[in-house]
Amino acid sequence: MTEAAFGGSAEQTSEEEVGLRYEVDGEIATITLDRPEKRNAQTFATWSALAHIGDNLPQQVRVVVVRGEGPSFSAGIDLRMFTPEGVPGQGSFASSATLDGSAFEKRVAQAQRGFLWLRRPDIVSVAAVQGHAIGAGFQLALACDLRILADDAQLCMKEPALGLVPDLTGTKPLVDLVGLSRAIEICLTARTVKAEEAARIGLAELVVARAELPGAVRDLTGALLATNRDAAVATKRLLQGASGRSLEEQCAAEAREQAARVKALFS
Ligand code: ACO
């Protein structure tokens, strides 16, 4: 998992910079952001490692839990990325400024790969968020299908305050979840959204006391795994496609998926 995503070589990128732990237990994969002393700040190596996990996810995995060690889920991008020196072996935004537009966009797309796979229909991804989820941390939580928040969670899309845009796949799920006006307000003020508000406006499925977060994740995971796998995959696929289809198209898609289910179950 020591691959550099942005301008560094694997040899130059230490496990410390990757900052991830990854465990598979049967049908559950758990990804833990594991640099608590730096509030689980993320580097390009972190995103590369996330993409690597997605590319190599064992076929039996049905639920992917994304969590953070320590007081914060993630304080976002490693702020060294904004210094001229950057992160050893990984370059920096300053060095990326010299790239032409398409080369830079390719690098961003490479980083986004670490987040995009969490929406695959064959898995359900669950973010377990305590403390701060700032910038890339908020976007990682948004990349997951579901979010369980501890009551001390604080979400902040800080990028605009730093002169940047959120570019780690977070803008679409944010708009889908809270609507355009609320998304504009949250991003352009870069304010903190606390757990109770997050649940109220659709950014969290559940808020629990901090100590209950692991138990709540276990309960949700158990409930998700109790359903028929193929039906779960087909249903997620249907739900994901719903907003892009007319009612008639969605009804036709339901009928197609059901035909395949009935055939699998009864023939
Ligand atoms: N990158 C690198 N190091 C970080 C980051 C970060 N994003 N966030 C925290 N750290 C480090 C601190 O420098 C400190 O290191 P040190 O002990 O060597 O001095 C350590 O983590 C602990 O940080 P504190 O600030 O002491 O922790 P605290 O719990 O009081 O505050 C908080 C946490 C609120 C997250 C604060 O650290 C913070 O504001 N961090 C920066 C958040 C940020 O601006 N992120 C970028 C968003 S934009 C994007 O992600 C694209």
From TrEMBL:
Question: Which GO molecular function terms does the record list?
Answer: isomerase activity
* PROSITE patterns for the chain: ENOYL_COA_HYDRATASE
Recorded superkingdom = Bacteria
Q: Which InterPro entries match?
A: ClpP/crotonase-like_dom_sf, Ech1-like, Enoyl-CoA_hyd/isom_CS, Enoyl-CoA_hydra/iso
For this chain, the family text in UniProt reads: Belongs to the enoyl-CoA hydratase/isomerase family.
Name the chain's protein. Enoyl-CoA hydratase/carnithine racemase
Give the organism the record lists.
Answer: Streptosporangium becharense
Q: Lineage, please?
A: Bacteria, Bacillati, Actinomycetota, Actinomycetes, Streptosporangiales
